[in-house]
Design brief:
five-stranded mixed beta sheet; alpha/beta; disordered C terminus; four-stranded parallel beta sheet
Length: 1470
């Protein structure tokens, strides 16, 4: 055997240190890895023990390896070692040296001497032992290192290559021994010659060979003494078992402590490299591909380094395709791990209990008396007795080839032996008394049975007979097996191919499932079934007189229990290599859910194939499903632990014990009638062989079981048994007298439900297809006799109706016609669909747009709910209803003669039943993709509660919209809600599980069966009068199509139903609805409007306006949009919606005066009303805003300038404080107050009848806590308010800005309370102090509740603005000394106060008892001195928030106690 020398040595040297280190650092590939190890101080003295060796102790790094390509390899050695510029060994050494240099900068490396690197010809090749000798010689001769005292890190790459294929296990044992001898010789030499060395032993088999089991050494010189030449195909099983066996032998060598007798030397086996060269084959040397290959090598080297940091027993396989983070030595274990310092024990943990006894004799007896054949050879497969079987055969994989069935415990290598004579379905070793197999059972009925296999060997051997199963096979390989089987049967002179009855057992699918995650398309359920169909078609075509057992693929996930158990000696590595898609996924991961789903789909699709009747066209052939493995469970010991005695030594294949049980279960399945077959046989149970039934002594088929296959092509048609199908005698002139036959045009808007997504799909790959012709509300494929859809029902009444969609395709295809639904659409997309529909109807020559009656079905909302929890603001019920309204408004304004069926939003939560139970054949791994907020998460989770409330709010929102009468303004248009989907019931099968036949393969969209039921329910809903419409839907109900009656021949509307819209009952609004309830007793209206501001009632206010900055323009109220001014939602002046859905001061006042004027709506400047606030405004802008407002009021034709009472709110100062440190003079306290005074003076001098709310600037310090709550807040908020958020805690800068904040409050209060604006009876300025000591809202974790704030953590959200409106209103009603000086942020709809019945006025200084009723202040003495009010107020500001917090805390606690659990918000003083 010849090897290639790769020798790289790094020497300690003071010269050239910087150059070498710089070169190491130039490893481009290494830059991709994260290296975050802290720098360490070099130890004063290196470690004396290899078991305490730290990276900093290492002075020299080297590597040797046999990396010559072996025959059969896909990796060329010239690519590995030469054409890339840097070989694997070189990159490995450079990478390790570079990593070590972070701990010991003096580590250097030197390239190998000439002649030892690159690729040598065969005559120059140097074996691994020679490399070891060379490395020792070089190290001894080098004067720059202390050979005896310097620590060395040497990596030995050793391959499992040898001239042995998968032959008899005894030969393989010899091969492994030879390999081990060669390795031992190298390690012995290093152990004797090299002091102070840490040796990494790395298996490099993946780099040097493509298959250990299939090597062709005919052209290799000196092939070795144990070359074996065996025929037969190799498999993944062969390769993995061989690799594991070599690895196991190496590990046992090292565990023997042969190389741990000295304290300065050790060898540690590191997990094998998994280099995958397949993509480009490493054939080229272009720069890009060379660099790519170097990256792969570097990745492998980093993986090696990381494993050096892991204890023995915890090391992980790694590959070049996985980007790793560089691990660091831990403080607890700063050394490289060895067997000794890992406290490693090779003996597996074992249970204190014993596994079920492993008896070596697995015979049984036949308890049957009648073993005779039929009197005459039967001509029908349905009258076939067991003794009539002349030939037995089998197809499949290693479970039928019986790999390892006869292996002794722990002999993993012997699993490569195929014990075909013990195979459950065809083995014929010995007889039934010692070996239980299906063949041996049948031999008791017919001793002349032909075809069973005996002994061991591959499928090509003579003793394999008709057992043509091939180890490692997938379903795609079975057709080839069938062809070989047919050839063998035809060529066997003992078999009369035409007349002998044949029993063929097919069992396949385990390997497909084991690899499904690597190629989901190739191993999909559809391809699996297709390959089975091809194989069965061949048998059906070629083989006469055959009974085919198709054994259902087992539930393979149970294998995970054996792998997870620590109480057995299973080779866990080989299990994960053989079946990675089953073993490797984490519990409850999407990958595991996919496995469960596809496993079920394999089983279901196989059943459908057989039950299609495809193989029941001849009387001498049938295929019968044998389902005994369908729900098989893991066999357990008496202690409840997985029992490995039922498995071969690899813990993957069956032992003879299981083969015996499987044979018994299969036999019994064959005698059980269809519909009564056992599907969950416990392997651990005693299985007694059944006997043929005396009345029915045949192998059971569908026919002799009197079993009827389910209809594979169901008809989803209906009948409309109506006597009167005529239209109106004269063209209908009113939508309320519209008969179904009057409808000439049908259309639909919506999402994937209406687009027809997945209706006729039979696999997930097709679910994206839009079967518009089958859509419940708009499809027109075929006719009602075959396809039930709303258009097909209408076509029974009017054959000339147009607009329905046909076939498949998108909304843009011509055959979609007036089906303008778009998959994935949300309510916000509905207006665009309405416009497209309008364009199509106007331009289509088949439609008389003005004369034809039109039926338009609208269904939307599922996608909004599915993502609702991700953005409750955007998908709020208010927004949902507004978007529906916009679409309906378009139709109402522009479409004549139309009845719009608005289908109520479906309650999606029942659909969870399809995704929470793994027994249901649904792709649970798609739950997050399909409908995250509904289908994922625990029951009663916050997200589900939100969706539940939002669903109700959506339904209530459209009810209010329609019942408002908005769309009943003329006789030729109406909107009718069809409520049948408000409460749905999931259909259940006989097993109590959801019946997935009503759904497409994704279990979310309805199938054609489901769409048919939807169409019927919609039709019936349309005929039902309002008030009597069904509001629930059970798809399992036999829905009979209703007919128009003589008394009620019209489509139901509110008018022809004699229905009066009742007032909408209040319901619990969803939490994102920040409306309020105000239930105040009616105040007796005054005979005349008061002329005194001190007797001003809320109902007297006719106009509202506001000054301020971005807090008044309501920036942030619209979700994450921080650029738009959402003026309609402004707390002090916005008028969007109503108080029930959005709390603002105008919406409150509209309850007292519906004709209030001046409030802003929407987002544009044109609809701003008297909201003159501007983003970025400071106090210096207030006078200009005041003048602008005065002019707007003066010029308004809707305002009586002199007589109408005006309410103006002023709130400013945030930007002044945030910029104070940048220009202290401009933003000084004096200037702040001066600007406020100038603005108030303008109002005082120019406006009659005014009440001014001066809102006190908030205490800003709480912003710091908000900013600190998240990194996003810290970044954005600091940009918005640098002067408050940038100073360090306890700094003089912070103290100064906090003082200025308090001074702003105190001086503004002084201005308002000075009496400057109290000389007029019709004018008042009142300080509203609710922001003086604001309580910061906290969530349940005690952190700032950011739902009150916009994305910049500075502005408020719609929720926060609503709280401001509530606090302002309540402040306005509270007497001066009783005003709340804090804002307790809690969501409660009933927080709004009502005017005091005795004094129902807005509070002023005077009506609070601090001024005389006369304007002349000198003549009266107030009950409380005026100076006391000012002093007390100012002192309160300056004293801070402590007292207020204590008082408010008590109030809040008392309030919370009174209101129960309505509010659970935590608060802390800002």
């Amino acid at each position: 055997m010849k090897l290639v020398l790769g020798l790289f040595l790094c020497f300690l040297s003071s010269e050239g240190n910087a150059d070498h280190l710089e070169e190491s650092r130039k490893l481009k590939a290494l830059r991709s890895f994260q290296f975050s190890c802290q720098e360490v101080t070099l130890p004063e003295t290196p470690s004396s023990s290899v078991h305490a060796l730290r990276p900093a102790d290492i002075k020299a790094v080297a590597a040797i390896g046999n990396l010559q390509r072996t025959p059969g390899s896909v990796v060329h050695h010239e690519d590995l070692l030469q054409s890339t510029g840097k070989s694997l060994l070189e990159v490995n050494v450079e990478t390790l040296a570079a990593l070590i240099s972070n701990f010991n900068p003096s580590v250097l490396h030197q390239y190998p001497p000439p002649g030892t690197e690159g690729v040598a010809s065969d005559s120059q090749a140097i074996d691994l032992l020679h490399q070891a000798e060379e490395i020792v010689k070089l190290m001894k001769e080098n004067q720059m290192m202390d050979f005896q005292n310097d620590w060395k890190l040497i990596t030995v790459f050793f391959s499992a290559e040898n001239p042995c294929s998968s032959c008899a296990s005894t030969q393989l044992d010899n091969c492994i021994l030879d390999n081990l001898e060669n390795l031992t010789a190298v390690l012995d030499f290093l152990y004797k010659k090299v002091p102070k060395a840490f040796i990494n032993l790395v298996g490099s088999t993946e780099l040097t060979t493509s298959s250990l089991a299939c090597q062709d050494y005919n052209n290799v010189s000196n092939p070795g003494k144990n070359q074996c030449n065996c025929d037969g195909e190799c498999s993944t099983l062969d390769d993995n078992v061989l690799r594991w066996s070599y690895q196991d032998a190496w590990e046992k060598l090292l565990e023997s402590e042969r190389f741990d007798q000295k304290d300065d030397f050790t060898v540690v086996l590191q997990p094998s490299l998994l280099l995958r060269p397949g993509r480009n084959g490493f054939i080229t040397t272009s720069k890009t591909q060379v660099e790519t290959l170097e990256e792969h090598y570097t990745s492998l080297a980093v993986g090696l380094w990381n494993n050096m940091m892991e204890p023995v027993g915890q090391k992980q396989l790694y590959s070049d395709t996985k980007m790793l983070q560089v691990q660091c030595p831990s403080q607890e274990n700063p050394y490289l791990f060895t067997y000794r310092n890992s406290n490693y024990s090779s003996s597996p943990e074992t249970s204190n209990t014993k596994e079920t006894s492993q008896e070596r004799i697995y015979g049984t007896n036949i308890p049957c008396f009648d073993l005779s054949p039929s009197d005459t050879v039967p001509v029908s497969v349905h009258h076939l007795k067991p003794a009539d079987i002349q030939v037995i055969a089998a197809l499949g994989d290693s479970l039928t080839a019986a790999n390892g069935a006869g292996s002794k415990p722990h002999n993993v290598l012997d699993v490569l032996t195929q014990y075909r004579g013990l195979s459950w379905s065809i083995g014929g070793n010995e007889n039934i008394s010692t070996v239980t197999t299906l063949a041996n059972i049948l031999r008791e009925f017919n001793p002349s049975l032909i075809g069973y296999s005996t002994g061991t060997g591959r499928e090509t051997t003579a003793n394999a007979a008709l057992n043509q199963a091939v180890a490692g096979s997938h379903a795609e390989d079975v057709p080839a097996q069938v062809k070989r089987l047919v050839d063998r049967m035809k060529n066997d002179t003992r078999i009369n191919f035409q007349t002998d009855w044949k029993l063929i057992t097919l069992f396949i699918g385990g390997n497909d499932l084991c690899n499904i995650c690597s190629d989901p398309i190739r191993y999909s359920a559809e391809n699996y079934t297709y390959n089975l169909q091809v194989a069965l078609d061949l048998l059906h075509k070629e083989v006469p007189r055959a009974f085919v057992n198709l054994v259902t693929v087992l539930t393979i996930s149970r294998l995970r229990e054996l792998h997870a158990s620590k109480n057995n000696s299973c080779p866990k590595l080989i299990m994960s290599l053989l079946c990675p898609c089953v073993i490797n996924p984490k519990d409850n991961s999407d990958a595991f859910k996919k496995l469960i789903y596809f496993n079920r789909r394999y089983q279901e699709r196989t059943r459908q194939l057989v039950e299609s009747g495809r193989y029941d066209t001849r009387d001498d052939f049938t295929v019968v499903m044998q389902p005994f493995l369908r729900n098989v469970s893991m066999p357990k010991t008496e202690e409840g632990l997985p029992d490995s005695s039922y498995f071969a030594p690899d813990c993957f294949h069956f032992s003879q014990k299981t083969h015996s049980q499987a044979a018994r279960a299969l036999w019994n399945n064959m005698l059980e009638p269809l519909g009564e077959k056992t599907e969950n046989k416990k392997i651990t149970d005693e299985i007694v062989l059944k006997c043929p039934n005396e009345a029915e002594p045949f192998l059971r088929t569908y026919k002799n079981s009197n079993y009827t296959y389910p209809n594979q092509t169901p008809n989803y048609g209906s009948q409309l048994l109506c006597e009167d199908k005529s239209p109106s005698s004269s063209p209908a002139t009113s939508v309320h007298f519209l008969k179904p036959a009057d409808v000439k045009v049908i259309a639909a808007l919506g999402d994937s439900l209406t687009a027809g997504t997945g209706i006729a799909s039979d696999n997930l790959l097709d679910v994206d297809t839009e079967y518009r012709g089958l859509s419940w509300s708009i499809g027109g494929d075929a006719s009602l006799e075959n396809v039930t859809t709303l258009p097909n029902i209408f076509r029974e009444l009017n054959g000339k109706i147009v607009g329905y969609s046909t076939g498949t395709g998108s909304e843009n295809d011509t055959n979609a016609f007036l089906n303008q639904a778009v998959p994935g659409a949300q309510a916000e997309h509905l207006p665009a669909q309405a416009r497209n529909l309008l364009r199509l109807m106007k331009t289509d020559p088949r439609i008389d747009f003005n004369a034809d009656w039109k039926l338009i079905t609208v269904y939307i909302g599922n996608n909004d709910l599915c993502i609702y929890c991700k953005d409750p603001d955007h998908y709020s019920a208010v927004n949902f209803t507004r978007r529906i309204q916009e679409a309906l408004d378009i139709l109402h304004m522009q479409v004549p003669k139309a009845l719009v069926s608005l289908v109520a939003v479906m309650d999606l939560l029942p659909l969870r039943q399809l995704f929470v139970d793994t027994q249901v054949q649904c792709p649970t791994y798609l739950a997050d993709y399909l409908c995250s907020c509904v289908l994922t998460g625990e029951e009663n989770s916050t997200n589900l509660m939100m969706v539940r409330e939002a669903t109700k709010a959506y339904q209530l929102g459209i009810q209010r919209l329609v019942k408002s009468g908005r769309y009943d303004t003329h006789e030729n248009f109406t909107v009718v809600i069809q409520p049948f989907l408000q409460n749905i019931h999931i259909p259940l099968g006989q097993d109590g599980l959801p019946d997935v036949s009503y759904f497409s393969p994704d279990c979310f969209h309805p199938s054609q069966k489901g769409h048919s039921q939807l169409a019927k329910a919609l039709w019936n809903n349309m005929l039902q009068p309002l008030g009597q419409k069904d509001d629930s839907f059970d798809s399992m109900t036999d829905i009979v199509l209703s007919c128009p009656t003589q008394n009620k021949p019209f489509l139901g509307t509110y008018k022809n139903s004699n229905y009066t819209y009742p007032p909408v009952e209040p319901t619990n609004e969803p939490t994102e609805n920040w409306g309020s309830d105000l239930s105040c007793p009616e105040q007796p209206s005054s005979n005349h409007v008061s002329t005194s501001v001190h007797k001003l009632q809320p109902s007297d206010i006719k106009m509202i306006g506001a000054l301020g900055d971005s807090l008044t323009t309501a920036v942030g109220a619209g979700a994450t949009d921080l650029k738009t001014n959402w003026r309609g939602l402004s707390w002090s002046v916005g008028g969007d919606e109503t108080l029930e859905t959005q709390t603002t001061l105008p919406n409150i006042l509209k309850k007292f005066n519906p004709n209030l004027f001046g409030f802003s709506t929407g987002t544009s400047k044109e609809t701003a009303g008297f909201n003159v606030a501007e983003q970025g405004a400071t106090a210096c802008d207030m006078p200009a805003q005041a003048r602008e407002l005065v002019e707007l009021i003066r010029n308004s034709s809707k305002i009586n300038f002199k007589k109408d009472w005006k309410l103006i709110t002023v709130f400013i100062g945030g930007n002044d404080l945030c910029q104070y440190c940048l220009d202290k003079e401009t933003y000084s306290v004096q200037n702040y107050v001066k600007h406020l005074q100038d603005a108030l003076d303008i109002f005082y001098e120019e406006l009659p009848r005014v009440f001014v709310n001066m809102v006190e600037i908030l205490e800003m310090s709480g912003l710091r806590q908000i900013a600190a709550s998240s990194s996003e807040c810290a970044l954005t908020a600091k940009n918005v308010c640098p002067c408050y958020l940038n100073p360090e805690e306890n700094s003089s800068e912070l103290q100064e800005i906090e003082r200025v904040n308090r001074d702003f409050q105190a001086e503004a209060l002084q201005l308002v309370s000075s009496g400057r604006y109290e000389e007029r009876e019709d004018f008042a300025v009142v300080m509203q102090p609710f922001f003086r000591n604001t309580l910061l809202p906290l969530d349940s974790n005690g952190k700032p509740d950011l739902s009150f704030f916009a994305a910049d953590c500075f502005h408020f959200s719609a929720r926060g603005y609503a709280e401001m409106a509530i606090a302002l209103w309540n402040n306005m009603l509270e007497p001066i000394v009783e005003k709340q000086t804090y804002n307790n942020f809690t969501h409660e709809r009933s927080k709004l106060k009502c005017p005091n019945p005795e004094k129902p006025f807005l509070s002023t200084m005077r009506n609070s008892g601090f001024r005389s009723s006369e304007v002349n202040l000198e003549k009266t003495v107030p009950s409380v001195p005026f100076w006391a009010v000012i002093v007390a107020a100012v002192a309160g500001v300056l004293a801070g928030s402590l007292l207020i917090w204590l008082v408010s805390g008590r109030k809040a606690k008392r309030h919370q106690h009174e209101t129960g659990t309505k509010s659970n918000m935590k608060t802390t003083p800002l």
